[in-house]
Amino acid sequence: MQDKYKIIIGGFVVAIFFVILGVVLLGFANETFDVIAGLFGAPEWEIWFPPLPDYEMPGFEGNMLTNFVVGIAFTALILVLTFLIGWLVTRRRAKG
Questions:
Q1: pLDDT digits (tens, 9 = 90+) for 24-78
Q2: CA distance to 40, 51, 85, per residue, from 45 (Å)
Q3: Measured distance CA(26)–CA(92) in Å, rounded
Q4: Against a cut of 0.85, is the pTM above it?
Q5: Where are the domains of the chain?
Q6: Angle at 92 between CA 88 and CA 78, to 5 degrees
Q7: Is 67 exposed, middle or buried (0-12, 13-18, 19+ CB in 10 A)?
Q8: How would you label 32-58 residue by residue, b for 16+ Cβ within 10 Å and e otherwise?
Q9: Residue 50 CA to chain centroid, in angstroms?
Q10: Whole-angstrom Cα distance, residue 2 to residue 43?
Q11: How far apart are CA 86 and CA 77, in angstroms?
């Protein structure tokens, strides 16, 4: 196997490790700003509506397996997009 593929696979394994660590350790943690805002009685209002509110799939709140799948899927998506952009940039430089 070529060295570049070993690096890609190794990086993806490390990324999955951090996804698992984040889901297990941070999945049930309160956000600091929410806690502090609650102490001051500040009202909550949205400035934008993200596709995954509170970093969870709507209807599957608190489900660790769903959080693992979503975390790994988005990690893979970012990896693919990064390599696609890198490929396009190197292809463009090779032509010019």
A1: 887 666 677 777 888 899 887 878 887 777 767 788 887 888 888 988 998 999 9
A2: 15, 16, 35
A3: 41
A4: no
A5: 3-95
A6: 15
A7: buried
A8: eeeeeeeeeeeeeeeeeeeeeeeeeee
A9: 13
A10: 55
A11: 14
